[in-house]
Amino acid sequence: MWETFHFTSVARLSHALANCVNVCCNGRMRTNNANQLHRAYERALARIEELERENSEIPELRRIIAEQAAEIERLNAKIADFDRVLEETVARAVAEVVKAATEPLLAEISRLKAIINKDSGNSSAPPSRSGFKKRIDKVNTGLHERSKKFAVSWLTYELCKACG
After folding, report:
1. Mean pLDDT per segment of 10 residues, for the chain of length 164 residues?
2. Collapsing DSSP states into helix, strand and coil, what is residue 119?
3. Which long-range contacts link 78-87 to residues 24+ away (Cβ below 8 Å)?
4. CB-based contact 125:118 (threshold 8 Å)
5. How many other CB atoms are there within 10 angstroms of residue 144's CB atom?
6. What pLDDT is attached to residue 35?
7. CA–CA dist 127, 37 (Å, integer)
8. Which member of 25, 44, 52, 74 lies 3.0 to 4.6 Å from 13 by CB, making a disulfide possible if both were Cys?
9. What is the DSSP letter of 137?
């Protein structure tokens, strides 16, 4: 019976010891009660010493737990910092790669737009609606527009010269 009984506090131990002393059979104490009582007492003392040793370790264990909790917080902050730096680095790298990949494409798009917006390779005039240059046939008067202006200017000069 005593081998399976575990004492977890001094109060329970003293209560068990008091019960053990009062055990009797027809008013007489059993002959092995003293031996049982002595073994129970020694087991109880050993358990009390073990509990006191465990209790004395509790403050040290709490200090260790607090240190480890602080270390965990420090490492979590460091991980968050690494995550932020990693995200920034990846974003910069992606931006550089995208820029390097799109610059030649944008240059080609600009070149093609310039070609589309011209009627011919040596013209800077905007294109017509159909994409081809419209040709307007003027009535052939024998003189080009500049030639007409020159002729009028020349005639005016000659008249002024004749009039004196």
Report:
1. 50 61 50 79 92 88 95 97 96 94 91 78 54 54 59 70 68
2. coil
3. none
4. yes
5. 10
6. 83
7. 117
8. 44
9. P
